Amino acid sequence: MNTLFNKYLYLGFIVIGMVQLFYVKDYLQAAMYWGIALAFDPFNVEQHWSARPLWQKVVLIVHLAIVAACFGYGIGIKDK
């Protein structure tokens, strides 16, 4: 898949997730959109995980941690 196309999809899902989080206040929807954004790797998709620079790995792992935290918070809020 084209890397430029992936970047646009990645940023689009990030923006939709931010709208869900900050305007709609729906944490589960934000986590869903941010999780889908991870499927569209904004970096070189041909490059193996072990060959990636450390900063790219950190960005993707932190993104995954934010998705997990938002999902956990959304589940916790609904548990009241």
Cα distance, first to last residue?
Answer: 43 Å
How many beta-strand runs? 0
Report the mean per-residue pLDDT as an integer. Answer: 91
In N-to-C order, the SSE pattern is HHH
- As residue ranges, the low-confidence spans are none
**Based on helices, strands and strand pairing, what is the structural class?**
mainly alpha
Biggest beta-sheet profile: none
Q: What is the tally of helical segments?
A: 3
Based on Cα principal axes, name the global outline: globular
Residue share in β-strands: under 5%
Helix content: over 70%
Keywords:
globular, 80 residues, single chain
Short description:
The chain is mainly α and 80 residues long. Helices cover 75% and strands 0% of the residues.
Question: In words, what does this structure look like?
Answer:
Helix content is 75%, strand content 0%. The protein is mainly alpha-helical. α2 runs antiparallel to α3 (54-78). The mean pLDDT is 91.
